[in-house]
Amino acid sequence: MTDNVVKAGVKVTLNFSLKLENGDIVDTTFDKKPAVFEMGDGNLPEAFEKLILGMSSGQRSEFNVRPEDGFGQHNPNNVQQIPRTQFGDDVLLEPGLLISFADAGQNELPGMVVEYDDQNVTIDFNHPLAGRALLFEAEIVQIDPVD
């Protein structure tokens, strides 16, 4: 067992919720199995890891997360017009539809359909929570040394 404080080199078991400013829940583990991750492994965004640093087992806290500290500001350069001909006839386009694209390095790049017509499809490659202030609630369930 460690000294029971969240720090680098520990495995953290936690319950969390992520809410929009209006209280709508984006994601939560409070009603299911807690999340387990190693600090620094990339499973929890770095900005959120910084918020729970120093918390102890059993502690529960809420944090206001500004857009620039969460998923970044919405970047209008990440909204692209793509010719409708680039999409197969079998693709049923609708606003809000997430489509997976490949970037120049062949990495998966999700984009959301904003609007479309017969000529173009407008795709937003920003994270869906970009530009949004969030409320992050975390409850540390357990802290263990990394195996």
Automatic annotation (TrEMBL):
Annotated catalysed reactions: [protein]-peptidylproline (omega=180) = [protein]-peptidylproline (omega=0)
Keywords: Isomerase, Rotamase
Root EC class: isomerase
PPIase FKBP-type domain mapped to chain residues: 9-83
InterPro entries: PPIase_dom_sf, PPIase_FKBP_dom, SlpA/SlyD-like_ins_sf
SUPFAM superfamilies: FKBP-like
A molecular function (GO) term: peptidyl-prolyl cis-trans isomerase activity
Domain of life (superkingdom): Bacteria
Enzyme Commission code: 5.2.1.8
Family to which this protein belongs: Belongs to the FKBP-type PPIase family.
UniProt protein name: Peptidyl-prolyl cis-trans isomerase
Species of the source: Oleiphilus messinensis
